[in-house]
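Dear colleagues,

As part of the handover before I leave the project, I'm documenting each prediction I ran so the next person doesn't have to rerun anything. This entry is a single chain, and its sequence is reproduced below.
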Amino acid sequence: MHIQAGRFVADCQIGAERDSHDDRLAERLFAMRAIRAGDLRHARAEAEHLHLPLAEALAGSGMVLQDDLACATAWLAGLPLTDPLADPPDPRLVERLGPQRCLAMGLVPLRVLGGEVLIALAQPSEWPRHAAEVVAALGPVRLSHAPLPAIQQAVAAAASLRLRLQAEARVPAPVSARAWRGLAGWRLASMAILLGLALAIMPMVALTVVLAWLVVSIAATSLLRATALILALRRPRTAAPAPPLARPLRWPVISILVPLYGEPDIAPRLLQRLGRLDYPRALMDVVIVLEAKDTETRAALAGCPLPGWMRIVTVPDGPITTKPRAMNYALDFCRGSIIGIYDAEDAPDPDQLQKVVQRFAERGPDVACLQGCLDYYNPRTNLLARLFTAEYASWFRVVMPALQRLRLPMPLGGTTLFLRREALDRVGAWDAHNVTEDADLGVRLARHGLRTEMLPTTTHEEANCRLRPWIRQRSRWIKGHILTWAIHMRDPVGLWRDLGWRGFLGYQVVFLGAQSQVLLAPLMWTMWAISVGLPHPMQTLLPAGGVQVLIAMFLLSEALVMATAVVGLARTRHHGLWPVVPMLHLYHPLGAIAGWRAVWEAFCNPFYWAKTSHGHFDHAVGDGQALWQAPNPAPADGTALHRPPNSPFRAAPDAIAAVPVGGETAADRIARALRQGLPLADLPEIRAQPSLPGRVRTSPASIFRRVSKAREICVRSAS
């Protein structure tokens, strides 16, 4: 009781200090005429509601210019304001402290002045936490203030090579794919020689061994699928609704990585969909990750004004161009305790981040990762899209939940992943050289004793339903699973020790068994020749009734595939796709083609990332309204009273005074809508003036720039 009382007193003291600082910051900003009175009231209400300092509530809100906020913060801290972009830091000082430590602490050493190192801080209040470490590395220091984005850009420019090399080698070498290239050549030669000798000297024995392994693979994967089907049928179709989140909960900052490469068409629509997420913008840290050579996507984003809670991190060019390398690089620039991942074409459920926070709060630290369900928003584009949708429903609604319940390693999906930052750093983040970094990460989490759970939320994405791109994508997946299996089987004893006997056997079934079944499926198909009386080289080696047993096993495997697809579709909104389930056997030959291409690439081009372009069928969903069957929530940095009634971030009506409409000009409202990603068609000016919509829609970026510049000039001149 004494400890709790002490904590209560400490919390009250911290709260009182924060309130005093917030009051002074508010007074300073208002005196500078940097913020409207109504906006300030909204920001104060949101900061109090979320237990945040006022500066953090304002940082991503768009209510105040970043330069004005920096000036006020520096004035309150009694520090000079510096610009680390105009006056770049000394790379030697950054290297001495360490670029990753600079990014983690939100500071950068600039230069030596009179025997002291000038430090630029983003948050002066955090300096006491880092003072001892910085002084020990650099000696006497002199403090100044700079905005966090400027500090991060300065560190990136000063230590570009160091950060790039660290991004390519975060994962320890023994469990990384980067050593595969040097061994691939002799592995390919050895396998070719052994296979040739076996077929030349003992062809029937070699075929018998291969067929026996195929039978074992089919039996193992069928057993796993049957177990998953039984577990799925034992559970209700729909889970009970989760209780609402308690208001006293300290909402964490969530950093969302969105790696883009060659996506100029879909990038603007992605920003609109992320704007539908119902989570406080002050606690959202959306990091759009671009490659330095991707000029097309950069140009497309340049025409889309980004709100304050979104930013771009540019990855320097390197020897490989992979998604995990880009995410490793951007990870150091994230400020959240939870790291999420979305792909270019993703349309997540609006309440997805709320569910993530709730589940992590309910679970212990051993639950390090949450995997959401993936689905498609264009399932009826063609037959391939329908089959792909059925396969996804089977995997994410039936098989993956079974792997969780059986405590087996889970090959994660590449998107709608949410990880505790501490656990992600512990396992080395992503393997930059693995083309299925998600599956590999799931195995490494399991090897460290960390668990993954499925989350009852859905992200819709675009089904890759063109034949050649589908084969390229599936080939990359199979190649990555093959490499992942081979990498972790370098030390089978250590893998057994880390996963236990059950996890080890499950690993063999999920990775080796499934890919063996894909690659050897053509051999099984030849068994049908015997059933219709055609000659077959294996006919004399099989015992009486052996062919019938093999065919029965094959039919049972196909029946289980179709049954899991039916059960999976029953847990989605795609009930009308059941008639295509029997056609899944036509889907498997495409997988075999992709599988053998994957084998070739695994030895000849193991790190090649077959990029899948998106946006070809994105028009089928419009703005995505029908995906959720729910009203579009306003961005959380907007007026709190405009949020959905069930949103936990909706402040009480009496906690905030609404901004009178008459206090805002039409230009103000248009600029706010553009900053926050709100649909312009909802503004009264757009509905009331027929001539205005055409001008707004034809060039929203230019209007935003003109309005923002005009307001900035007015503020400067008035102050």
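DSSP finds 29 helices and eleven strands in the chain. The CA atoms of residues 255 and 335 lie 6 Å apart.

All the best with the project,
I.
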